[in-house]
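Hi there,

I know you've been waiting on this one. I reran it after we fixed the sequence typo, so this is the corrected version. Both the input and the resulting structure follow.
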Amino acid sequence: MQNESTTVRACMTTALQILEKWNCNQQQIQTLLKLPEKYSNLDIEKVNFSQDQVERISYILNIHASLNALFSNPENIYGFMNMVNYNEPFNGTRPIDVICNGKTNDFKMINTHINQLIIC
């Protein structure tokens, strides 16, 4: 169990770095990872992450990996989530806005969408 919690903490640190590179603000990061209001003072070593938080962290890492596979330039890798997208399923919204609605299933939808772009 100790090894698993160490892995989750490392993944959380990486997810926070990715969200910062996606230019997420504090409110978005709180919503995406279901963190307390003052998460900047959060001691990751002392947090017991819920299964929902672990799943969200996993999706962020997977979305980032998929964006790395899809794009070769950092502007698209890190900018995609904040770009207005007129294709399905976004219909003129930004991918980050879709996942900021708080529903874990939307992470899966975006990850699936990006993976389908890689296959095409």
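Quick highlight: DSSP finds six helices and no strands in the chain.

Best,
R. S.
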